Amino acid sequence: MRIAIDAMGGDDAPKVVVEGALQAAKEWNDVEIILVGDSVAIEACMTERPANITIQHTTEVIGADDEPVKAVRRKKDSSMVVAGRLVREKKADAMISAGNTGALMTTGLLIVGRIAGIERPALVYIIPTMDGSGVLALDLGANMDATAEHLLQYAIMGSIYRSKVDGIVKPRVALLNVGTEAQKGNELTKTAYPLLEQAPIHFIGNIESRDVLNAQCDVIVCDGFAGNIMLKSLEGAVSALFSTLKQEFTKTLFTKLAAAVLKPGLKAFRKKMDYTEHGAAPLLGIDGLVLKSHGSSNATAIKNAVRQARIAIQSDLVGAISTEISRGK
Q1: Average model confidence (pLDDT) for the chain?
Q2: Does the entry feature the keyword Acyltransferase, yes or no (predicted)?
């Protein structure tokens, strides 16, 4: 299998991207990694050259501040666009980028293309949970104004993802809402609820954002506006918690001793909440595997993104989604 990686995307590219690719190449010899970007910059970061890594040279880069649609249309030789073209032309089975999120979504839509029958692709994310299993949330920002039919497609795609990639036999799907009662919510959630009840998924009803970290479901469905706010709120709360703990545990000799005792437990908790353990967020609904890594991804996150892509390819995630959507038409 061939996985194209946008080597120039991300805060610390190409260094950490190359490091992560090298780790992945050593771990899985059945994966051919194509590093897409400035060959000179990429080669300068390579401490070795495994046989299953190749470089595709490009001359342009889409920056974090570039306007997505204009950048994708004008920078045709950018690392992100070329990686997307490799997927479209079946020269790669998946692409990964830690670059401009809007540009990657545009690349998915304009370069790779949508699965037939999908109205709006969804950006998904595995939110860490207290039991370590994580919950898949979608959409988290690809579409701010969704319809009930969009939420229905998100639910189906999310359920298939957790089944195919994470091996969950009967994923529990919930609808993000302001209360658990079926009649709660705005017009969007009220309209979507009966559609989800009739869908070929294990729908368990509404869920409130306060229950997300307790792993009461495997998939959370929401529009991009509410989903993005939920995600950023959770990220901010976890960040503030660890920052406060650090301050408190370094105040006195007594608290430092207490921190030493609690260190193993705190490290285990931090690992559960660490986005690098999941690596990347797939853009579901695209007719090819497109995965978005966090802009500040380290080498571990890039390696784990390759792991995710590898599992998705082996399980034919895109084909499974296409088949299910076609069946429902």
Answers
A1: 89
A2: yes
